[in-house]
Amino acid sequence: MRWMWIDRIVSFEPETRLVAIKNVSLAEEHLHDHFPADADRDALPIMPAPLMIEGMAQTAGILVGSVNRFREKVILAKIVNATFEVEVGPGEIIEYDATLERIDGNGASTAGTVRRLRPPETEWEVIGRVDLIFSHIDHNLAGLEFPEENFVFSDNFRTILRAAGLEDIAEA
User: Residues 30, 32, 34, 139: which is the catalytic one?
Assistant: First the structure.
């Protein structure tokens, strides 16, 4: 994964819950396309919902992968539910709160809450839900060849884990 849609892990409860944040900045190129100014309106830069879904997938994927110390390749298999009530713009912070609902040899399911903080306000506002299903591809796609290294959990993810003080699960 080359693009990171989370900036920092702020809470980790092994095999239960992981919370990460994303600082939304006008320096991010994708905001300029959503939505540019035209003859009838001013620019309205917002964080695209699919990128917020990916942020939750990265958060929940780290939680799922950490259960087996990242020895298995975990991929997003299905978006069960994704709803957003409000938009997020530059200068705001997104919080992804993922909870592990079920995990077995085939995969896992997670439930997620997405919150927004609008500084200088200090209260988080629930803005959506994203529920996901992950697959352990080493088990579910038997017979196919995959690289030995875990190409899903790259050095970028390990850097985020180390920054959160989670070196023990980052060194799997």
Answer: 34
The answer to whether residue 126 sits within a structural domain is yes
34 is catalytic: yes
Yes or no: say if 136 and 103 are a contact pair by the CB < 8 Å rule: no
* Residues 116-150: tens digit of each pLDDT: 999 999 999 999 999 999 998 776 566 666 655 55
Q: How many domains does the chain have?
A: 1
pTM: 0.89
- Sign of the torsion formed by the C-alpha atoms of 86, 52, 78 and 97: negative
Q: Where are the alpha helices (DSSP H) in the chain?
A: 49-67, 137-140, 155-163, 167-170
The CATH number that applies at residue 52 is: 3.10.129.10
- Give the model confidence (pLDDT) of 24-38 as tens digits: 998 888 877 777 778
- Give residue 35's domain range: 8-170
Query: Three-class SS of residue 91?
Result: coil
